[in-house]
């Protein structure tokens, strides 16, 4: 019931200086045991139904069967852990459930791809953190993500609730290093331009200035 002219949206912001890649993913010490040349797909979030991790596990497994050399790491805890453990056990070692991690910053540097498989979201900080760390992003068209991230520019966007769409996106990214490089570069530029803490505070200041003038 609020008039549109009285509404303002200020998106999340992150510390772009702290969330910045320091080296190639393949050189991360967290990747010990990962075969050279394999791509690590990362996901971070609560293990709950709306995150769609069951769809992502299925997508990674089927993408691997199609010849994409991938494995999936999921960091987080939650009520779906038992179900996801059972699904992961059927993937021939392609999926690791890492549990709670306090080193998400280091994990981001170990990822070759970041996947957001959520059925519904606002604008998660993990998406901005992945983009800032130049991790190519595959994301569902869920809520706030589609509102701010451009398809085939800063990310590859796919329909929600579809393991096949996630699978196809993973296969495309795995087979196209140029696309991965372009998404990584554009993602970093977008976060620096629009989602830094400094830019967020500018928006707050503009809002307050406008209220005072009114």
What would you say this structure looks like, in words?
With 214 residues, this protein is an alpha/beta fold. It is built from 8 helices and 6 strands. The chain has helices spanning 53-65, 81-88, 104-110, 125-132, 144-148, 163-175, 177-194, 197-213, and strands at residues 39-44, 70-75, 95-99, 113-116, 137-140, 156-158. Strands 3-2-1-4-5-6 form a 6-stranded parallel beta sheet, with helices on both faces. Helix 1 (53-65) packs parallel to helix 2 (81-88) and helix 1 (53-65) packs across helix 6 (163-175). The longest helix is centred in the last third of the chain and has 18 residues, at 177-194. It is globular and about 60 Å long. The two termini are 21 Å apart. 38% of the residues are buried.
Strand elements, count: 6
Cross-sheet strand order for the largest sheet: 3-2-1-4-5-6
Mean pLDDT: 95
Q: Judging from the principal axes of the Cα atoms, what is the shape?
A: globular
Topology pattern, helix = H, strand = E? EHEHEHEHEHEHHH
Low-confidence stretches are none
Helical amount: 40-55%
Distance between the termini: 21 Å
Largest sheet, in brief, is:
6 strands, parallel
Question: What's the tally of helices?
Answer: 8
Structural class call reads alpha/beta
Share of β-strand residues:
5-15%
Structure characteristics:
8 helices, alpha/beta, 6 strands, 214 residues, 6-stranded parallel sheet
Q: How do you describe this structure in short?
A:
By secondary structure, the protein is an alpha/beta fold. Helices cover 42% and strands 13% of the residues.
